[in-house]
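Run log // design_07
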């Protein structure tokens, strides 16, 4: 085997090449935008796997593609080959990781264009902030509805589409058929005696009931996004903290930037975002994300060294 130093292996990992155990071969982690490839890109990856690797493609939980078995001496040629189709390795290290998104764009349950929103986030914060070193990795997930297929609340920053119903109880005719009650997946719409009740505490804002009433008793009160912060899954897990409110796309976009800046300013090296939230208190972090104060310190935060926890 080639006598690669630990620093050389670490540097390759930072570029998206993970050493295959006991060999001089590496798995190349190829970035996708939300798990989407063009047919041409897919064909080039297949060719690359045959030409440079062991002929296999593997899918990761973060919707990237890994090509396994690439010898060390072929890495640069491999990068040139896939680069012709606009693809790069990456997705490792203490930085914003590639964004994951569900298929809400085409899914019957999707409340908005998840792929387009996630692509904007990818370009702004994965690509745009790639060189910004953070205390640890920072994962972002974009979910199209409360079905939570990509588990947004288990990411450092999770986004969930919301469509809040407004029920006009006085306008209810008591028809006995109640299509909204029939379509509600969590039974938030239910009958008590002769009346239909909307249990707002049980409602998950999936929007299924909106417009379903034959007499127009259920309309849209609000639409937007829930935001979860500090979720993680692995050797230790933490359910994301819900930031109270329904937020617009613009507000969510800004909140991502504020979360990254706050994490860089307040987090310790090696500390996950959720652990920092527990250390500082949920209320303090939420207050920072709902304020624009941290944006006034943006450049100073980006220029400063990261903090190391005191022993």
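design_07 sequence
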């Amino acid at each position: 085997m080639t006598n690669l130093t630990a620093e050389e292996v670490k540097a390759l990992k930072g570029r998206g090449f993970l050493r295959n155990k006991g060999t001089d071969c590496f798995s190349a982690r190829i970035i996708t935008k939300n798990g989407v490839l063009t047919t041409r890109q897919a064909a080039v990856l297949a060719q690359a796997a045959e030409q440079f690797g062991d002929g296999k493609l593997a899918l990761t939980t973060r919707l990237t593609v890994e090509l396994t078995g690439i010898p060390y001496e072929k890495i640069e040629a491999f990068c040139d080959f896939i680069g012709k189709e606009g693809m790069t390795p990456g997705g490792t290290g203490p930085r914003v990781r590639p964004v994951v998104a569900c298929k809400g764009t085409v899914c019957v349950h999707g409340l908005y264009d998840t792929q387009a929103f996630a692509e904007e986030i990818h370009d702004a914060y994965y690509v745009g902030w790639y060189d910004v070193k953070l205390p640890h990795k920072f994962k972002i997930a974009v979910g199209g509805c409360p079905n939570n297929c990509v588990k947004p609340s288990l990411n450092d920053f999770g986004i969930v589409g919301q469509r809040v119903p407004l029920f006009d109880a006085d306008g209810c005719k008591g028809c006995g058929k109640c299509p909204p009650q029939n379509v509600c997946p969590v039974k938030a719409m239910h009958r008590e005696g002769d009346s239909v009740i909307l249990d707002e505490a049980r409602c998950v804002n999936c929007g299924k009931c909106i417009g379903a009433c034959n007499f127009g008793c259920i309309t849209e009160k609000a639409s937007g996004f829930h935001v979860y912060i500090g979720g993680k899954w692995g050797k230790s897990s933490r359910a994301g903290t819900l930031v109270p409110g329904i937020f617009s796309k613009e507000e969510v976009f800004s909140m991502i930037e504020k979360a990254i800046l706050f994490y860089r300013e307040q987090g310790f090296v090696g500390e996950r975002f959720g652990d920092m939230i527990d250390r500082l208190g949920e209320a303090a972090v939420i207050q920072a994300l709902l304020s624009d104060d941290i944006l006034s310190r943006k450049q100073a935060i980006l220029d400063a060294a990261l903090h190391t926890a005191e022993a």
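The chain is about 30% helix and 20% strand.
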